[in-house]
Amino acid sequence: MDIELNDQEKIIIDKIADAAQELHLESYLVGGFVRDKLLDRPTKDADVVCVGDGIALAKAVAARFLPVPKVNIFKNFGTAQIKTTLRTPQGKDITFEIEFVGARKESYQRHSRKPQVQPGTLEDDQKRRDFTINALAISLNKNNFGKLIDPFGGLKHLEDKTIITPLDPEQTFSDDPLRMMRAIRFATQLNFTIASETLLAITDQAERIKIISQERITDELNKIILAPKPSVGFDLLYKTGLLALIFPKMAALAGAEYIDGHGHKDNFYHTLQVLDNVAQKSNDLWLRWAAILHDIGKPATKKFEEGHGWTFHGHEVVGGKMVPKIFNELKLPLNEKMRFVKKLVMLHLRPISLTKENITDSAIRRLLFDAGDDFEALMTLCEADITSKNKQKVQRYLDNFKLVRRRCKEVEEKDHIRNWQPPIDGVEIMQLFNLPPSKPVGILKDSLKDAILDGAVANTREAALEYLYQKAREIGVYQ
């Protein structure tokens, strides 16, 4: 066999080959499994194409495992899937998915990416694949077991690190426009180059992306974001015109404007640098989203001030307020993940303001209180936000952030403010002063919190009560 398999993978492949032979079905390993094995990348799934009934083959293969795994059947697509446990060379158990499908050929209607399907040969099946590197097949048949079948030069394209379509790229992308994003995703993940003709076709067909569901687009976007160097993908999305269609608010960051010799940096490429910087430190998808959105409020706040230049006052607040709407538009989760991104966008300038001398403990306490458990993530974002080409300037900022971390550690050890809550909450305030839920309750609650964070009131129940009675008299809710 032209690919290296570990012992467990060999057992699985032998079971598939035996079952196919028993059913007199031609069968082949195809697509991502073959590609990743040739690239020596880890694999968690395999696709098997047979000339005939893929669902019948899946059932026959499942029967060869103990315990017998469930066969998940997708009748509309003529596919079936089984899952088994595979132990990696590192000794870790992973779920290994095997998908079975009958070889087919496809034709498309212009208004839809859902093809009309009919049975076909292996050659037909390879022709419908998105890229040559995904059209590679390995025979599981007795007469030529292990033979690599490569009708489009996919093996050479793997060696050349090139993304290219098996057939005319204009037709390939018009048929299924999601393939445009897949091309960019593979180029980003694998550090490959998209062939010039293929890249030109993406630019020409970009508008076709509008027929793709937002969920599918966002899934590809997230895979690009999780790549080792996500800027590669975003640069390609921008230059092909796809980004302006799928994420116009991010595309709006691009460009620099000059008035009277005063210019500002290109916030799009600055954002990509911040994203790459975060990617070097963290695989957290949502921290990477915070990097993408940290300056998203700049276009709305951009202003030229005579004698001063360009300003973006309040862009962190405007950007934070934009986060829920962006998440909703992109069909990202509107839960604690969104709230985490929003918090980091709104707070990302705060640590910079604390790098100045004579910063009070009060300011440090407020940052710790507002950041809570996300303090480390916030500092990672802030450090990534230093993108100057001046190495001395970068080092100066990073040294200042070390000082902020040290001050925060000292204050936290002393005051335990992170995730702190005032000793008296809103419910007890209502009981103390016989108040319904109302504006005065909010005033009392917030003023107590601020007084303790500012160090004006001790963080004890007794001191909090004394303060609240005094404040309640001031606002006229207690005599």
TrEMBL record:
Matching Gene3D superfamilies: Beta Polymerase, domain 2, cca-adding enzyme, domain 2
Cleavable signal peptide: none
Family designation: Belongs to the tRNA nucleotidyltransferase/poly(A) polymerase family.
The species this protein was found in: Mycovorax composti
Name the record gives this protein: Multifunctional CCA protein
InterPro entries: HD/PDEase_dom (IPR003607), HD_domain (IPR006674), HDIG_dom (IPR006675), NT_sf (IPR043519), PolA_pol_head_dom (IPR002646), PolyA_RNA-bd (IPR032828), tRNA_CCA-adding_enzyme (IPR050124)
Molecular function via GO: CCA tRNA nucleotidyltransferase activity
Cofactors (names): Mg(2+)
Source organism, top-level taxon: Bacteria
PANTHER family: MULTIFUNCTIONAL CCA PROTEIN
Keywords assigned by UniProt, alphabetized: ATP-binding, Magnesium, Metal-binding, Nucleotide-binding, Nucleotidyltransferase, RNA repair, RNA-binding, Transferase, tRNA processing
EC category name: transferase
HD/PDEase domain ranges (all copies): 263-387
Pfam families noted in UniProt: HD, PolyA_pol, PolyA_pol_RNAbd
Originating gene: cca
Record-linked SMART domains: HDc
UniProt EC number: 2.7.7.72
